[in-house]
Each structure stands twice: as structure tokens, then as C-alpha cells.
């Protein structure tokens, strides 16, 4: 992965349940692998709009589509799939998680604007 491509900053958040005085409350918090590794400001490449293949196929397009690439880190793609990406104050629900050919250089996400939950 070429570092110059990572010109944006994103947060990766996962849904966590917190016990409050009025019961359980679900909140989005920055993904943390450990106390030293928190994903609240991650260098990323963010491309918005549909890809060329979608435009060429003439398929219906969903508004608020983003493709995001970040450096690889050790985590399961199932856990990443339950997270969301926040970029420029807008939350994106992760639709698909992929890696590069080596599966050790970058994570690639296809994400859709999350209209159901605010930032």
C-alpha cells in the first residue's frame, strides 16, 4: 500500500452495550484492540460514489456509497463487518470486507451511509 493514498482520516467504531442507571444502552465507541491501539483517527483512502463497474452495468445505485482502504491490522473480518466507519461526520455501515492479494497489506471496505443511526 502506498502511503500517499491514505490522505483521509476515519474512525472505526463498534457497537457496545453499556449499563446505565436506566438499563442497557447501546452506543458506538472507537474500535480498540487493546488499551494502546484505538482506531479513532486512522489514515485511509476514501472514495465516494459508485465504482466504474456499477456505472457500466447500469445497476441501480444506492446514494452514499463509499469505498475505504486502510492499512491491514490483525482482526477477524467478521468483527470488522459489525463495525461502522465515520468520515467527515458521516457514519457508513460496512457492507463488505476484503483484503489485498497477500491478505497482509490492506483492508478494503464497501460501505453505505448509515441513515438509521447518527454519529
Overview of the structural elements:
By secondary structure, the protein is mainly beta. It contains 2 helices and 9 strands; from the N terminus they run E-E-E-E-E-H-E-H-E-E-E. It has helices at residues 52-57, 77-81; strands at residues 8-20, 23-30, 32-34, 37-38, 42-48, 65-71, 83-87, 90-99, 106-113. The strands form 2 sheets. The chain has a 6-stranded antiparallel β-barrel with strand order 1-5-6-9-8-7. The protein is globular. The protein starts with 7 loop residues before the first strand and ends in a 6-residue tail after the last strand. The mean pLDDT is 86. This is Head-tail adaptor protein. It comes from Alcaligenes xylosoxydans xylosoxydans.
Order of helices and strands: EEEEEHEHEEE
> What average pLDDT do the residues reach?
86
Instruction: Provide the gyration radius in Å.
Output: 15 Å
Q: Which spans of ≥5 residues are poorly predicted at pLDDT below 50?
A: none
Q: Which homologous superfamily in CATH is the superfamily?
A: Bacteriophage SPP1 head-tail adaptor protein
Structural class: mainly beta
Distance between the termini: 29 Å
Tally of separate helices: 2
Share in helix: under 10%
Mind describing the biggest β-sheet? 6 strands, antiparallel, barrel
For the record, the count of structural domains works out to 1
- Overall, the morphology is globular
Strand order of the largest sheet: 1-5-6-9-8-7
> Which percent band covers the strand fraction?
over 45%
CATH architecture: Beta Barrel
CATH class: Mainly Beta
CATH topology value: Thrombin, subunit H
Number of strands: 9
Amino acid at each position: 500500500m502506498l502511503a500517499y493514498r491514505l490522505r483521509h482520516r476515519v474512525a472505526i467504531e463498534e457497537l457496545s452495550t453499556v449499563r446505565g442507571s436506566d438499563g442497557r444502552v447501546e452506543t458506538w465507541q472507537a474500535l480498540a484492540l487493546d488499551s494502546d491501539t484505538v482506531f479513532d483517527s486512522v489514515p485511509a483512502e476514501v472514495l465516494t460514489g459508485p465504482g466504474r463497474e456499477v456505472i457500466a452495468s447500469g445497476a441501480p445505485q444506492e446514494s452514499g456509497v463509499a469505498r475505504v482502504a486502510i492499512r491491514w491490522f490483525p482482526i477477524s473480518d467478521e468483527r470488522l463487518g459489525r463495525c461502522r466507519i465515520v468520515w467527515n461526520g458521516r457514519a457508513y455501515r460496512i457492507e463488505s470486507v476484503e483484503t489485498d492479494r497477500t491478505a497482509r497489506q490492506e483492508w478494503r471496505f464497501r460501505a453505505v451511509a448509515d441513515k438509521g443511526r447518527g454519529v
